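Me: I hope this is not a bother. Any chance you could explain this protein sequence and its structure tokens? It all follows right here:
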Amino acid sequence: MSGPTLYVVLVAFGVVVGVASGLLGVGGGTLIVPFLTLAAGFSQHSAEATSLLVILPTAIVGSLALRSRGVGNLGLALRFGVVGAVASVLGALLALALPAMTLRLVFAVFVGGVGLKLAYDGLRGDTPSTAGDGGLRS
């Protein structure tokens, strides 16, 4: 896939990722990385780097929309964000040190594990705190 067709598909998928990110609160990487590697032919390293760049504006806009309705814990988010930003440097260096197939396997195991846990909790009827902040206060 290349040229105009690729751009149309990327824009369409961008809409899907944007809606899914706002609806599900997913860090678009769980959608973007598989799409870029499987459909667009990106290497695992390139897909993950691209995903990180895409997630920033998506997360900011989605978060602002939710915060305008009083949803979310800004103090906790900022603390996670600072620690996450520092730790992401280590993660990026580790990703670059791994062969592409190993990195793809690590990503697949992570996404699969999260999916299994969510499905298990959903089938059991487990629900998160209804306080809106998971019980964590800023």
Summary: The longest helix spans residues 100-124. The two ends are 47 Å apart (CA to CA). Residues 128 and 134 are 7 Å apart (CA to CA). Residues 3-73+89-124 form one domain.
